[in-house]
Amino acid sequence: MNPSERLDEQLDAAIALLRRAEHAVAVTGAGISAESGIPTFRESGGFWEKYPPEQYATYSAFLKNPKKIWSMWRERSAMLRDSEPNAGHYALAQLEEAGRLEAVITQNVDNLHQDAGSKRVVEFHGNARWMRCKGCGHAEPITEEALERIPPKCSCGAIMKPDVVMFEEWISDDALAEASSLANRCDAMLVIGTSAQVYPAASLPRTAKHNGASIIEVNIEPTGFTDTLTDVHLQGAAGEVLPRIAARLTGENGT
Ligand code: NAD
User: Fold this and answer.
1) Pick the CATH number of 39-82+128-164 from 3.40.50.880, 3.40.190.170, 3.30.1600.10, 3.90.550.10
2) Mutate which of 47, 54, 170, 194 to test ligand 1's pocket (most atoms within 8 Å of Cβ)?
3) What is the pLDDT of residues 51-73, one digit of tens each?
4) What pTM did the predictor assign?
5) Residues 156-177: what's their mean pLDDT?
6) pLDDT mean across residues, the chain
7) What residues line ligand 1, using a CB cutoff of 6 Å?
8) Residue 217 vs residues 140, 214, 225: alpha-carbon distances, Å
9) Could you tell me which CATH class the domain 1-38+84-125+170-255 is placed in?
10) Do the beta carbons of residue 143 and residue 78 sit within 8 Å?
11) Hey, whose CA ends up nearest to atom 16 of ligand 1?
12) Would you name the residues annotated as active-site residues?
């Protein structure tokens, strides 16, 4: 069987599971935005080699040298501002609209699910279009003006931080509670474009599986879940696989 025939077969299996599901949810990672031109952590070359996450994405690094971390965010903000949703993001919005998907839990901070039209999006790691004061908690959008003098300061005098969860920080209570409740209740979970290495996000599919949900993975390569947890691995790019799922489940192509 060649890879394309294998994908067709796996797609049939995934569709059967999703047709039966009453509470399907999706968990997405950096891979779904790769086709929008936003590099993932594990890709070689490019952004994260210039700015290694262990040096630029930890809270202690931010506290030590906020200006250095903000200079990275200035470049990243420009890249995120210029990016647009791809066919994978739109397919998830279409599935939600059709009543086939309850919510998207995303580890991404790029706002592309909302841009594509998804309504119920649980942002597990925050949103990079916003910044928040570490002193008084005030939040506001990151504007080009704010990036002219880094680190930006709050009117209370304290330093602002990009409103994303850095390594060594806690997930917000609200996001954790909503994501856990969705993972506990769902009967099918689409796990898309995540290497499943960052916790606690990586525990959501475990919770879902433990409660009887089927796990459908969409990833260009196998992950730590594939042989242990996953029922169906759709090996392919999210921007190609998800529109095929949406077309079949929303009646555009009933086969
Ligand atoms: P990761 O970089 O660890 O893994 C990306 C995964 O996506 C890999 O398993 C890879 O095989 C897969 N992948 C790559 N291209 C794909 C495609 N076109 N279709 C399907 N799968 C594809 O990402 P992660 O697991 O999300 O963990 C990284 C952390 O970094 C997350 O917490 C996230 O918040 C953050 N991050 C976010 C963004 C963003 O907001 N777009 C980008 C980079 C990193």
Assistant:
1) 3.30.1600.10
2) 194
3) 888 889 999 999 999 999 999 99
4) 0.95
5) 95
6) 93
7) 29-31, 33-35, 38, 40-42, 107-110, 125, 193-195, 197-198, 218-221, 223, 237-238
8) 35, 10, 8
9) alpha beta
10) no
11) 31
12) 125
